[in-house]
Design brief:
- The complex is a heterodimer of chains A (201) and B (165).
- Chain A has helices spanning 2-35, 76-90, 93-96, 113-123, 134-143, 189-200, and strands at 46-49, 52-55, 63-69, 99-105, 127-130, 148-152, 162-167, 170-173, 179-183.
- With 201 residues, chain A is of the alpha/beta class.
- Chain A has a single domain (2-200), classed as Glutaredoxin (3-Layer(aba) Sandwich).
- Chain A is globular.
- The N and C termini of chain A lie far apart (57 Å).
- The model of chain A is unreliable at 1-39 (pLDDT under 50).
- Chain B is built from 2 helices and 10 strands.
- With 165 residues, chain B is of the alpha+beta class.
- In chain B, 16% of the residues lie in helices and 49% in strands.
- Chain B has helices at residues 2-16, 150-160, and strands at 27-36, 43-52, 58-65, 68-79, 82-88, 91-93, 97-101, 106-113, 122-129, 134-143.
- The chains are: A alpha/beta (201), B alpha+beta (165).
- The A-B interface holds A 20-21, 23-24, 27, 71-76, 78-79, 82, 85-86, 89-90, 115, 118-119, 121-124, 147-149, 151, 153, 161, 163, 165-168, 185-186, 189 and B 35, 37-45, 74, 76, 78-85, 87, 103-104, 107, 109-111, 144-146, 148-149.
- Strand 7 (162-167) of chain A pairs antiparallel with strand 5 (82-88) of chain B.
């Protein structure tokens, strides 16, 4: 059984490599479009939160800090979410009500809405955890050019013991739903705050 | 007074090299900590710096902890804008150098956590070296969240603890 999965994941990984290579080329274009005000990166979406379906347009008029990751990621995802949480704490109340954090799972197989909700809330009550079907998540991730793929370690024993390679972008989305800044897990809380304040001005 | 200092030093030295001997004696551990993550998390990461005072490189070929099913060495790397976590079979502390596990770089990945780790708790991690000696490390569990909301978070955690045993 394990052997079959291994074989599948190998071919899956191979095909993902091709997609990733193509993706890295379009990703560069995406950044160019973004800097010239193009609309190719990002866009509206609807995913599931604990409270029910949540769409980007629900936050019209507010800023959104959106990060794509997964809860089995012990290093960069918690770092980024802790930084977002710290940034939200550093804003004053009047600013904070104008900013919504979103944590979008790229691993919906393991990250149910309940799991991702608890995970996001742990870092800050102002971060909503979102998940969906594999297809839904894939579509949103593609729109944001967040490429990800699942891979297995060679000697991994269980079918659910896999890891995800994923793009590390923290998006700042303005009140009209347009991506206005891209940060990463390296971005310090004070720099996230500075990026937010630039938009609030 | 001198007795107390000696006693203190001997405790310190014993703690650092507990169950050691062999290559482990050349290593000094600093900043060892493990992240407290949401109670449902099955994985977390550990960080530390190993300083090798010896004349020979020390290979670390494995790690275990009683709180986790497995402890692996991982390294984050960036390829084409993708962060990928790669597993390493062994890591090396160079002679008269150091080996750092830090966020965004190398980390110890603890998988299959047996219970949710709480900030302030101490987790023991055993490093197995290539000469079969072991180095026992006390890693403090740390909350990585911003400190300002701490009391509120603890309050929240208190509610949750009622159903995790």
């Amino acid at each position: 059984m394990r052997k079959v999965t291994g074989a599948c994941s190998t071919s899956f990984t191979m095909s993902m490599i091709a997609i990733v290579i193509a993706a890295s080329l379009t990703a560069c274009n995406g950044r160019d479009d973004q800097s010239t005000g193009g609309a190719s990166l990002g866009g509206d979406f609807t995913l599931d939160a604990a409270s029910g379906p949540v769409s980007l347009h629900d936050f019209r008029g507010r800023l959104v800090l959106a990060y794509f990751g997964y809860t089995h990621c012990p290093d960069v995802c918690p770092t980024t979410l802790a930084n977002v949480g710290a940034a939200l704490d550093m804003l004053d109340e009047a600013e904070r009500v104008k900013v919504q954090g979103l944590f979008i799972s790229v691993d919906p197989e393991r990250d149910t809405v309940e799991v991702v909700t608890e995970y996001a809330r742990y870092f800050h009550p102002g971060i909503i955890g979102l998940s969906g079907t594999k297809e839904e998540v894939k579509t949103v991730a593609r729109d944001y050019q967040v490429y990800f793929n699942k891979f297995f370690d060679q000697d991994s024993e269980a079918d659910d013991d896999y890891k995800m390679a994923h793009a590390d972008h923290l998006f700042l989305i303005d009140g009209n739903g347009a991506v206005v800044d891209m940060m990463s897990h390296h971005t310090k809380p004070e720099d996230i705050v500075a990026a937010v304040r630039r938009q609030l001005r | 007074m001198r007795f107390i200092v000696v006693l203190f030093l001997s405790i310190f030295v014993t703690a650092q090299t507990a169950a050691a001997g062999g290559m482990a004696e050349a290593l000094m551990v600093s900043g060892a900590h493990v992240r407290a993550l949401p109670p449902s998390s099955e994985v977390t990461s550990g960080y530390l710096t190993l300083t090798n005072h010896g004349d020979e490189a020390v290979e670390i070929i494995g790690a275990t902890s009683s709180v986790a099913k497995a402890v692996e060495f991982h390294e984050m790397s960036m390829h084409d804008g993708m962060m990928k976590m790669g597993r390493m079979d062994k890591v090396v502390a160079p002679a008269h150098g150091s080996l750092e596990f830090a966020p965004g770089g190398k980390h110890l990945m603890l998988t299959g956590l047996k219970h949710p780790l709480r900030a302030g708790e101490t987790v023991i991690i055993e490093l197995k070296l290539s000469d079969q000696s072991t180095l026992s490390i006390d890693a403090e569990v740390r909350d990585i969240r911003h400190q300002r909301q701490q009391s509120e978070k603890e309050h929240e955690g208190g509610h949750k603890s009622s159903h995790d045993h």
